[in-house]
Amino acid sequence: MNIKALRLDQFRPYALPVALLLGSLFHGFCARLQFLTPYLIFLILFMTLCDMDVREVRVKPMHIWLILFQTGTALGFYFLLRPVNQVIAQGTMMGILAPVAVSSTVIAVILGAKMSNMITYTILNNIVLALTAPLIFTFAGGTSDITFLVSAWLIIKRVVPIIIFPLIAALLCQRFFPKIRKGIVRFRNVPFYLWAFALTLVFGQTIEFIIHQDRSGIPVILVMTLISLLECVLLFSVGRWIGKKYGDRIGGGQAMGQKNTLLAVWMTQIYLYPMASIVPATYVLWQNIWNSWQLWRVRAGGKVHQEQPPNATT
After folding, report:
1. Which pLDDT score is estimated for 135?
2. In the chain, fewer beta carbons within 10 Å around the N or the C end?
3. What's the rounded Cα separation, in Å, for the pair 188 and 193?
4. Distance of CA 31 to the CA centre of its chain
């Protein structure tokens, strides 16, 4: 056993609260460093995907149903709420549309899910988002006078590089540079702490934005916080129901419910109304409360899945 890695793992339970605390205390400084976020996301995804075995990727009906429900529900709620409030509509959409977190594989396998299902959905979900996000953001934004094609191209140039390029780079590294890939995998703890740093920056930027809002925006913030809680319950529940149909209840729930909120918050703040990012920003609290409770139940019962997961992070 790697003693150094074990010692680093001891700090993991504290990473989320520390990141949120630092983001809250140093929100002004974090807002000035927001330009680092896309580079951190790229590096996190690349290092994590290098640790995944792409030979296990097998698209199954479960994955298709999860994608269809996630995309369809996100768009459905957007069109339903848009006449009421555009900001709430965008936030609700992004809370559901956010891609699965790469760390879902780690937690899901510990809870008893099938690793191959999680790896497949992680890659598939991020690819689908990269391909559909330009179209969705173009019609959902509606804040610019530029043409649809120009708007779509501008979004493609910024979204695809941080989602698709890490995947391509990881595949090339695995195929042609196995020694480099092996060296990257040795530092599998690094992406986790990069994620914590990136989360600090994004949450700090969100706090900075909220502080500069007038008091009239507080009711909307509270509503979006409640929406994120309801979304968390909905996505984990429906995901587990779909997964149960295909013999992987835990995998379905984690794939649907555990979100890469870091990427979702960044994309929302860049392409939509910044205040809408409150939904994915607060979603991270609910999903981590649920995951912590699940992991506590597993540890209390002494049952840990024997399949060794990759050490994913985001």
Report:
1. 81
2. N
3. 10
4. 20
Residue 137: which domain range?
14-301
pLDDT band at 5 (very low <50, low <70, confident <90, very high): very low
What number of residues does the chain have? 314
The answer to the question of residue 307 being in a domain is no
Type of residue numbered 195: W
Q: Is residue 77 part of a domain?
A: yes
What is the SS3 assignment for 247?
coil
Q: Is the pLDDT of residue 58 over 90?
A: no
Rounded Cα gap, residues 257 and 280, in angstroms: 12
Candidate from 54-68, 145-159, 190-204, 300-314 with smallest mean pLDDT: 300-314
pLDDT tens-place string over residues 132-152: 887 888 777 654 555 666 666
Residue 68 in any domain: the answer is yes
Selected residue with higher pLDDT from 70 and 57 = 70
As a whole number of angstroms, the distance between CA 283 and CA 289 comes to: 10
In whole angstroms, give the CA distance from residue 151 to residue 133.
Answer: 11
| Cα R_g (the chain), whole angstroms | 19
Q: Which residues contact 149 (CB under 8 A, 6 or more apart)?
A: none
Tokens 């139940």 belong to 297
Report the number of distinct structural domains present in the chain: 1
Residue type, 240: R
Structure tokens belonging to residue 189: 């703890």
Instruction: List, as one string, the DSSP characters of 148-175.
Output: HHHHHHHHHHHHHHHHHHHHHHHHHHHH
Q: Is residue 9 part of a domain?
A: no
Residue 239 Cα distances to 8, 102, 162, 248, angstroms: 31, 16, 26, 10
Question: Which residue would you say has higher pLDDT here, 97 or 184?
Answer: 97
Rounded Cα distance, 168 and 160, in Å: 11
pLDDT value of position 63:
94
What's the pLDDT band for 95 if we cut at 50, 70, 90? very high
Distances (CA, A) of 259 to 38, 98, 102, 314: 17, 6, 8, 9
Q: Facing residues of 259 across strands?
A: 100
